Amino acid sequence: MEESKHYSDQELLELLKSGDGIDAAVRYLYRSHFDFLGIYVQQHSGSVQDAEDVFQEVVVAFIDLVHHNKFRGESSIKTFLFALNRNIWLNELKKRQRSAIREMKFENAKPVEDEAISEYIVAREGRQLVMDLVNKLGTTCQQILVAFYYQNLSMSEILSQLNYENEQVVRNKKYKCMKKLEELIAADPILAKNLKTALQYE
Amino acid sequence: MNNEFYNTELLVRYLDKELTAEEIIAVEQRLAAEQGLREELERLKLAREAVRLYGLKQQVGKIHTQMRGTGSVIPISRRNNIQTISRWTMRIAAIVVLAVLGIGVYQYSTLSNEKLFAEQYQPYEIRASRGAETESLVEAAYKKKDFPGVIAAFNNSPTHVTADYFLVGQAYLQQNNAKEAVSNLELANASADTSHLYKDESEYYLALAYLKDKQTDKALRIFRKIHSDPDHTFRDKVNRWFLRRLSLTSD
Q1: Nearest CA distance, B95 vs chain A (angstrom)
Q2: How far apart are CA B70 and CA B61, in angstroms?
């Protein structure tokens, strides 16, 4: 049933904002927009893998913008995703500096037409450091922090997933993990600055 | 528990909204006064946002992998290639099938004894080497392509040899009289022995006369015999394709 369901833009936004609806919304985004956006990347010097990577980034960025109320709905989701996809890909091409021709293509590209996309592109490099940063934590820390801060699970729910004595032990572990992450950020002022640019949506 | 960790725990609880109203006031007073604490709080906020973004990336990545696994997300160019290949393959296959069917239908619908006869028939011509001194009136008229004359000469002659039957049979074929052609060529064929000059010719033209007279089964039997005989004079003219089409017209 879900596979064939069509969502209006409004329904999709509500689904994305509800914690439980993200899976269905992401699947819908793939079904509805992957081809269209992927073709753009492939028609502009991108490989199949590039198309997939960029689309994945587009989906993550879009959901993140929705969560931070940065998507104002001035254009349709499809138009917004297309602009996001195009700007991410052109930014990526520029970063790669593959050839003067592609550089020219970038220079001639249309300007970013949405403030949220513009902000995202500026912060893009910093956001890519996030994965590296969290990957420096151990698996347990990742599990606890993601479960608590992303999945919004309670301590008792997290305890049921992990092998700890009680909730207080999990809680203490969470503090330690946060401290470790905070220390990694503190140890690298440039990283801290980039992250601040990339993650400051509040 | 050292002071540094206590501060982190306090700030994390502050961020997670786990403090009481009194504790919040106390923390905010400290934040107002301590720059180091404010900076740590900022870094903890960044850490929390980093974890959220990490979680979102993980979730999307997991769905992407699942959808690829189920074939829901196939790389576009590969899918396009597959689709293009299969589309063209299907098109070519369809064209070939339609062409074959079309040819088959056309061949079948236009297939007739008359058509097969017209394809196969070439008027018999007497070769000059055949002895002029024994030339009959029938043969003389045939050489002049005077086919009514051939028939008249044959009818006026009290006796007939194999060659007469053969030639008058040819004349009747030229005159589109299939019945008479068949009866005379049957006689020519029956009287022809292995040494007979017109042996292969009698057989071949009798089959053609049967074909023209719509006695397809009889024609088919003789044509098959000719085809199976590698030494037959007309073997090359009677190929498999002709036999197959001829068999389609028989009952």
Answers
A1: 30
A2: 14
Provide the shortest C-alpha distance from residue A103 to chain B (in Å).
24
From CA B25, how far away is CA B14, in angstroms rounded? 10
pTM, 2 dp: 0.58
- Asked if A42 lies within 8 A of B63 by C-beta distance, the reply is no
Give the separation between CA A34 and CA B84, rounded to whole angstroms: 19
Cβ of B48 and A127 within 8 Å? no
Decide if B77 and A52 are in contact by the 8 Å CB cutoff: no
Report the C-alpha gap between A81 and B26 in whole angstroms. Answer: 45
Cα A202 from Cα A69, distance rounded (Å): 10
To the nearest whole Å, the CA of A122 is away from the closest chain B CA by: 16
User: Is the predicted ipTM greater than 0.85, yes or no?
Assistant: yes
HSE toward the beta carbon, residue B47, CA cutoff 13 A: 30
Q: Which residues in chain B have Cβ-Cβ distances shorter than 8 Å to A42?
A: 76-77
CA distance B29 to A110: 49
pLDDT in tens, chain B (251 residues): 567 778 899 999 999 999 999 999 999 999 999 999 999 999 999 899 899 999 999 999 999 998 887 766 655 555 555 555 566 677 788 888 888 787 777 767 777 888 889 888 988 888 765 555 577 888 889 988 899 999 999 888 877 777 888 899 999 999 999 999 998 888 888 776 655 667 788 889 999 999 999 888 889 999 998 988 888 888 888 888 888 888 887 76
